[in-house]
Task: structure prediction
Amino acid sequence: MTKSMTRNILQSIMSTRSALVGTALLLLSAPGCVNAYIQNIGGDTHQVFQRIYTTDWNTAWQATLEALKHSSLDISNAESGYLQTKWIDNTAEKNFTDSFGQADSYLKAQYRFQVSLSKGFYKHKPTVKVSIQKEQMVQKDALEGWRQVETDSIDETTLLYRVGRLIYVRVKLAQLEEIKTKKELQNSGF
Result:
């Protein structure tokens, strides 16, 4: 083989290799561009936060209702495991927290929670998955109209924590009540 033929073969291999690397880099960077575009135009703002608790359905449902007791409920359907609060005005809170950043103040701001519960099993024990989504709507001026914005996830994680603690307290109270009942039965002679 001559030197020119070897050089031509190496150049074709290198050009094919660089084309493959370039294509791979383009494909890897494309989803990032799409995600940035979607976030830039205000789409894909739905975030669902969820946690799975090892408990029965009724305990989880009652704990969720108790965690949301300060919010007026718009929809409460135990059969489907769905709760939705009414719109809650949080204009003052949004203007206070956003005043430290570069964002403008809002004319109006409101949010609501959508909570869904679903049954399951893990190692032959009943579980309940609690999913929470917060819809935050803002309006900068009267001409703009309502626009949905991404939440900071603090309220969702706080609500999931509350539900978890309430489930824990309810389970512990049930265990203590069962122990108390067994002692009473033993002392009574049955």
